[in-house]
Amino acid sequence: MADIVIVASAFGIDRVRREGHLGCVGTAASSGAAGFEVRRELFASEQDASADALAALGRALADAGLWSVYSTPATLYTDAGALDAAALTSALAEADALGARFVKFQLGGFAGDAHADTLVALSRGARARVLVENGQLALGGSLAQFRALFAALDAAGAAGALGMTFDIGNWQWPGEAPLDAALALAPYVEYIHCKAVEGSGARMFAVAPAPRDPLVAAVLAQLPHDVPRGIEFPLDAADCAGDARDRVAWLEAA
Questions:
Q1: Tens digits of per-residue pLDDT, 60-89?
Q2: Distance, CA of 245 to CA of 198 (rounded, Å)
């Protein structure tokens, strides 16, 4: 059975910024989740990203029986296609201070050169595993980019230098088919963000999947069954704890 992770944003952006990530740890732990995703963009100030603050949050998560993912909005590759070494180094240090299992980046402007030697060198010795996520923009959210990234790493002899966070909903923003992406990228997927999408164009937004959502079910069937699955859709604010328990049980069985 896959571990279930609750992404901090599922508790509501306003709540996380008001109470801090610590304010959501108890609810996450009581839901039956195994992990908790910390979102750097939801920190109230840069002080929250200090080594001491991250270490304290990491201890609280561990004490609650939760392992962690550290998510940064930083892109691994610049718009010009270069590896962003400074962003990688900084995020790895923060993730290690937290004690995270994964550190998750947006892909950014990867354009063919994976800069594999530098990527491997900078990642060596880090506790956190580097993952790249498909984003909601065309740049960093195209299936072609991800195909090319993993092909470039393979060609450079650096297969396995990083893994992928596969966000089922995000593919739909740039107009990619999630099932096509799952069929192409399953060997590289190490973490799955689960959400459905409603609306169109500029009015698209994440929602909880229906119990038998056919797209989510079809995609999960194609992806590895033993990698962690993240709840990245809004929980019911009127009964956050109860909804979290129900969603964790559903996603475990999906």
A1: 999 999 999 999 999 999 999 999 999 999
A2: 23
